[in-house]
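So, can you check what follows?
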Amino acid sequence: MTITKTSSKGNICYLQSGGPTSVINASFLGLLQAKKELLNDSKLYVSHFGVTGLLNGHLEEVIEAKLPNLNVRPGAYFGSLRKKLPEANDSSEAKKIVSTLKKYNIRYLLLNGGNDSMDSVKKISDYLKHSDYACQVAGIPKTIDNDLAVSDHTPGYGSSAKFIANATLAIAIDDQSYEKGRINVIETMGRDCGYLAASSYLSSLKGYAPDFIYVPEVPFDVILTKKKAEEKYMKTGHCLVVVSEGIRDKDNNFVAANKQSDAFGHTQMGGVASYLASLFMDDGYKTRAIEISLMQRAGSFVSSKTDIDEAKQVGYQALKEMTLGKSGFMVIIKRVSDKPYQVRYDTCPVEKIADIAVPLKKEYISSSLDNITPAFIDYVLPLIQGEEKDTFKDGLLNI
């Protein structure tokens, strides 16, 4: 993509927010490329640890030569933060943010994050309007949960889906090493949305489908689940159950969660696999709880090339759209076709995305409510394709 260079009227600031993905740093690379093509006279700054730099008045200029290989580097290289900004346009936080932007002559501010981060985009946009400081603000999407409104999917999800699918496949095959194995319970992330757990269904393409997959969109019945799993094990000597961390009972209570909450009031999840495994153990069955946990977002050694490329593109498109005068938006991905897989990029007002979590589509949930439908394959399979050629050096991640 070649764009005519434009004259810069100010500088650019980028920050990362919320939980990292294995491709969040690739979005920065896309932004960096757009900066060189479109605003080469501008300086590019980062606010370390999310809005922390904006609040403490310290931004750091990016020196490209000092950057590591961000194509496959896990985590948020510039540091992330979960912080809910106040609504009030005259709050101390609002004044500090505007002051920092003025100090560094920032005219383009880009936040790379999920739906909570898009809430921050909206609020900072309001702060700037209130202060009458001309600075455009945009959101670059990322989340492994794949729960952002409007966009077909989100950068970060494809690589996590690839990790979960292959982990599920490996666990299923490992259990088949024994004539009689275990009731294995795999727990994925996904507090409100089942796309991560659903991705385990991809192992069915190799003949090792999970016996049961449970997602937050369906009320979870512990007694019925135990019955089904134990019957399957008694019949075959093997049983593989995949559960989302956010499964809830008929009264919408989490089956397992701790009492802590994050800055946005979201319950901290984890422990449902251990809970279910303990029930099977109490009934005398061999069992194992496998909580994939951070590996599904940090496992950049199995990142999808498609995911990396799209992460770069949303970073590029965000700044490109800003040079056309747009502000208060997030870049979205629109699917053109499955076969061949094609997408295009567009923008959406951030208020249609902020604080909204979309569920797994009903058409992807089996009629028995305990598995995923084959229709899901066409949706997710294109997202896990390809690998970055320079992923490893000396057998370790090339970071």
